[in-house]
Amino acid sequence: MALMWRAERGGERQQQDQVVRPGPSVYRLLPSLSDYQGLHLESADVIRLMRWQRDGTEADRPARLRATWLGERKWAKSEFPSGRAGAPVLSRRLAESMGEGLAAAGSLVPVDIDAAVKDDEYFLFVVEVVVDCLDLRRSSKPKKIDGEVKKAVFRPEALPSHLPAFRLPQFPGAVQWNGWAADLLADLTGDQIEKRLIWSEDPATRPHPDPWGI
Fold first, then answer.
1. Within its chain, how far is the Cα of 136 from the centroid?
2. CB 3.0–4.6 Å: which of 103, 119, 147, 212 could bond 171 by disulfide?
3. In degrees to the nearest 10, what's the CA dihedral of 9, 14, 19, 25?
């Protein structure tokens, strides 16, 4: 069944426009350490996704993703169950709550979960938009192996703040979440998501010392 995007009503849009939004910020999102089941993603599928993110070869573009639940069976299943930096997985409820904004940044592909039950409907968010918005002079040098940027400073005028997420050409295997999208997902899931601040335009904030560490 095709995922139906939630339509935004005119009144909601007008009300949203009246809200004063904070300055731009960028986060890494990963499952919290609370007692929730998470997903182990099939290694071969993850490697294929990483090749596509690095090289853009259409043959490597994922059409589905295989996974298995991990954790105590008595625990609830996380709605954001993947800690892979480049492979965010969303429950159907989260995907629908994010609305058409996800489609502007990428696409959703089904996750085939081993021994899945009726409510196990999850999607890999394949972030397709790559934006060169890093301030290379003020950021740390990307690592040679995977391009990881431990300390990132963004150019606000180039940041795609209207999108929920994007990737960097220097670090293509990681999804960067804009602050408003990170806040929305965290609000929807309570204690299920850990937000690690990568960068903020507000000089009073302190970025996470190792946002891409485990």
1. 23
2. 147
3. 60
Q: What is the pTM of this model?
A: 0.88
Which amino acid, residue 194?
E
By DSSP bridging, strand 36-41 and strand 65-70 are antiparallel
Cβ atoms < 10 Å from Cβ of 156: 12
Rounded Cα distance between 68 and 61, Å, is: 21
End-to-end CA distance of the chain: 35
Element housing 90 (H / E):
strand 89-91
Q: Hey, what are 116's tokens?
A: 């899945």
Answer yes or no: are the C-beta atoms of 25 and 197 closer than 8 Å: yes
d(CA 95, CA 142): 31
Q: Which DSSP helix (H) or strand (E) runs through 181? A: helix 179-189
What is the SS3 assignment for the chain? CCCCCCCCCHHHHHHHHCCCCCCCEEEEEEECCCCEEEEEECHHHHHHHHHHHHHCCHHHCCCCEEEEEECCCCCEECCCCCCCCCCCEEEHHHHHHHCCHHHHHEEEEEEEECCCCCCCCEEEEEECCECCCECCCCCCCCCCCCCCCCCCCECCCCCCCCCCEEECCCCCCCCEEEHHHHHHHHHHHHHHEEEEEEEECCCCCCCCCCCCCC
- Over residues 88-125, the pLDDT tens digits come to 999 999 999 998 889 999 999 999 999 888 889 999 99
